[in-house]
Write a structure and sequence with these properties.
Chain lengths: ~525, ~250
């Protein structure tokens, strides 16, 4: 009797388990959890796909190619196939597109915000803690065929940025912040002296003054002698809003995934920005294109862009896109403007690396080895030198080669381009002043919205609409609705519906339900019969 | 009886004629702008137009917000819908020739006129525009009226090509010369990606090749100033859709 009951229970459980799995994943098979293999099979051939990103900078491509060649020479059984992107959003969208088909790359340059979205698929992204600590294949592991970086040699602030819910899902690859690139000649011509630490008040004051001078009889701005003048341009309005709120100690989001952006300080910030848009003193990338171009053509005084865009800044910069229209000027590099000069804050950004889980643990290990290779001094230093990036390891920072590089600013306009090295030093000197925002499912959308609020304000002003409380309420609601922000729960888990189940799934579930009912009925009848039998006895 | 038959025949012929009447691609519904009215509208004005889909760049999801960029044309001129919010399903319905009514805001980005923040509805009707040969307009102010149209150029000479980012995958910038002046065109990867025959054909071009080109007359004027709204005719940056080496 007991055996029969156990058998019935097992039968029920057998029916139940696939049902739960089926409902949970809509028919998708979940990848097995990865565990580090004891050995790496060097007799087996692996092909791993690496989705990389560069800043339209051909040298970065060349460095990836060299890194791949060097890695393949060490591990002849691993072939790395590289795909190049010039935009993080394109990578993000392609990953999202490829997730259901399991055609994601093995290693991918990404932002932690994006990883939080990828993680909505179970076991899709590899947690790295176990791998990092593995004595053979972990960071500095005994079986690694190259000079692997130790865990304690990755800058802790940068490493922590790759943690989601306390688990390491991303390795930092490069880090940058934003810098304000300034036409110092114009600042001085307007009668101002550039301070060491910029404030928002200073930038807006100079910009407004430049606009207030108006145009001459030839239709040229008196401030710069050009037909075009946009004194202040911020490339990333997302970062602008986030940095201003951070500096003001105002809420934006938190680790619990609460979206706190829609507050009174945000309204104040937008009102302030709007007042400078209306005079023409400030504009954005979405409106006027690249700040570097405007700066180099003498049409802009303050251009805020990533330190990873430093090689575009300056009339004689290596990647100046508008050489024919550029004007000579003295360029200065400063941290982004601050509200509190005693407590400067600037964003930490830059590419990270994530690894996608696969069926074959050997393939995953091969991916991990390649990701680790990208943290070696050779790759880190070479890549960081292509822009105002900084390496993410103290091992690279402290190396003789890197220190020598930093000390040679201005020796030429290529490798030792002074603006680029100044931008890197800005980040190196401010690591403790950098901040990041919380990562959760929905944080990427929230980041978009932060920038969109500035763009919506700009467009409203250009369309002669009134920017007031009613506008803010309307715009906040529009953003929540457009980006479906109300469909993300506070714990960062998406509440978004997966949609109606397909007909086949409904039929299968219905069949399973009938089987269940049948089993239940049988069980009840059987129990009644047994009781009767027992009474009869 | 004969009279009735004759009357019926006349009626049938009249109705057939009405049914077969060619669609007037320039006819606009009430409250809809003609191309000339759209062209005359100030920047940041709200505009409503009716036109036909001639091409589209890939649909993409920006953090859950579907976006697409669409080339439209009527019998007079072209339009560009930039970052049109639409679902993937709606995007699928916007096939070449589809007639749409669009309401949005007219803006200019580097001299390229666009309609942004737009809403749209699909209407009855279909029209696929031929590529208009505007070679003779190169270097003249007339070419500005061809912006966003499906156009053709004959006998351009290849000066060189350059990949965006230094490697294949993204846009290809192509410089052509004609009548002693250089023009920078573009293989827009969102329109014709690296897997397309067009992308591969452009990659194979050599300096000195003489080619016929088709594409959408896009603009990128790096010196454009929204305040004066003066667009440089030579900043035409055609998005190439077809190329024939002579």
């Amino acid at each position: 009797m007991i055996i029969k009951r156990i058998a019935s229970f097992l039968l029920l459980a057998t029916m139940l388990l696939p049902l739960i799995a089926f409902v949970g994943c809509h028919g998708q098979k979940i990848l097995p959890e990865f565990s580090v293999p004891e050995e790496f099979d060097t007799s087996k051939q692996y092909e791993i796909v690496f989705w990389s990103k560069n800043e339209s900078n051909p040298t970065q491509n060349a460095i990836y190619d060299k890194a791949i060649a060097d890695f393949e020479a060490l591990y002849p059984n691993i072939k790395v196939v590289k795909k190049v992107y010039t935009d993080y959003k394109d990578i993000f969208n392609d990953v999202i597109t490829n997730l259901p088909q399991r055609t994601t790359p093995n290693v991918c340059i990404t932002y932690p915000d994006h990883i939080a979205t990828y993680m909505q698929g179970e076991n899709v992204i590899l947690p790295l803690d176990e791998l990092m600590a593995d004595s053979k294949f972990g960071l500095g592991g005994s079986e690694i065929k190259f000079d692997s970086v130790g865990a304690d040699e990755i800058i802790p602030e940068f490493l922590n940025e790759g943690k989601i819910g306390g688990v390491q899902y991303a390795l930092p690859y490069m880090r940058s912040t934003e810098a304000c690139y300034i036409n110092e000649d114009l600042v001085e011509k307007l009668g101002f002296t550039l301070p060491e630490i910029l404030t928002w008040d200073f930038i807006f004051e100079v910009s407004e003054y430049a606009m207030s001078l108006g145009k001459d009889e030839n239709g040229k701005y008196i401030a710069n002698g050009k037909e075009v003048l946009i004194p202040f341009i911020y490339k990333s309005t997302d970062n602008m809003m986030i940095s201003m709120l951070e500096q003001l100690g105002a809420p934006y989001s938190n680790d619990q995934g609460e979206m706190l952006l829609f507050n009174d300080t945000t309204k104040d910030v937008l009102t302030e920005i709007g007042s400078h848009i209306s005079t023409g003193a400030f504009s954005t990338f979405a409106k006027v294109s690249y700040p570097a171009d405007m700066l180099n053509m003498g049409q802009c005084i303050f251009a805020i862009d990533s330190t990873a865009g430093a090689t575009w800044m300056g009339y004689d910069s290596p990647l100046n896109d508008v050489k024919d229209s550029s004007v000579p000027y003295e360029i200065a590099v400063r941290a982004i403007p601050q509200y509190d000069t005693q407590n400067p804050k600037m964003i930490s950004q830059g590419p990270s690396l994530c690894i996608f889980n696969k069926e074959d643990s050997g393939e995953v290990l091969a991916s991990w080895l390649f990701a680790q290779f990208l943290l070696t001094n050779e790759v880190q230093i070479a890549y960081s030198q292509t822009e105002g990036y900084i390496p993410v390891t103290s091992k690279a920072h402290n190396s003789t080669e890197y220190q020598d590089y930093l000390s040679r600013a201005g020796e030429d306009n290529e490798l030792y381009y002074d603006v680029k090295i100044d931008a890197a030093k800005l980040m190196l000197n401010n690591i403790e002043n950098t901040f990041t925002t919380s990562v959760f499912n929905g944080s990427s959308a929230l980041r978009n919205v932060a920038g969109e609020l500035i763009e919506e304000t700009r467009k409203a002003i250009e369309r002669k609409q009134t920017v007031n409380d009613a506008f803010f309420e309307r715009t906040f609601n529009k953003m929540v609705s457009l980006y479906k922000l109300d469909q993300f729960s506070d714990d960062g888990l998406s509440k978004q519906s997966l949609g109606e189940l397909p007909t086949e799934s409904k039929m299968l579930l219905g069949t399973l339900g009938v089987v269940w009912l049948g089993l239940g009925a049988y069980y009840v009848l059987h129990a009644i019969k047994s009781r009767k039998k027992r009474i009869n006895y | 009886m004969k009279k009735i038959i004759c009357l019926a025949l006349v009626l049938i012929m009249t109705l057939s004629f009405v049914a077969c009447e060619k669609e007037d691609i320039n006819k606009k519904s009430e409250g809809v702008m003609t191309w000339q009215e759209y062209n005359a509208a100030a920047l940041n004005d709200e505009v409503t137009i009716e036109a036909y889909v001639q091409g589209k760049q890939g649909w993409w999801s920006d953090n859950g917000v579907g976006k697409a960029t669409i080339y439209l044309q009527d019998g007079v001129g072209g339009y560009l819908l930039y970052d049109l919010h639409c679902s993937e399903e709606e995007y699928g319905k916007l096939v070449e020739g589809t007639k749409v009514r669009v309401t949005g805001y007219k803006v200019a980005y580097k001299g390229e006129y666009e309609i942004i923040d737009a809403t749209f509805e699909i209407l009855e009707g279909s029209y696929v525009a031929p590529a208009t040969d505007i070679t003779s307009k190169l270097g003249t102010a007339d070419i500005l009226n061809c912006q966003n149209m499906k156009v053709a150029f004959k006998g351009l000479t290849v000066v060189g090509i350059e990949y965006q980012g230094g490697a294949r995958g993204k846009d290809i910038y192509v410089t052509f010369s004609y009548n002693g002046a250089n023009y920078d065109f573009c293989v827009e990867s969102y329109l014709t990606g690296a897997d397309s025959d067009l992308y591969k054909a452009v990659e194979a071009l050599k300096a000195g090749d003489v080619v016929d080109v088709e594409g959408f007359a896009y603009w990128y004027d790096s010196a454009y100033d929204a305040e004066t709204n003066v667009v440089n005719p030579n900043a035409i940056n055609t998005h190439i859709t077809g190329i024939t080496v002579k």
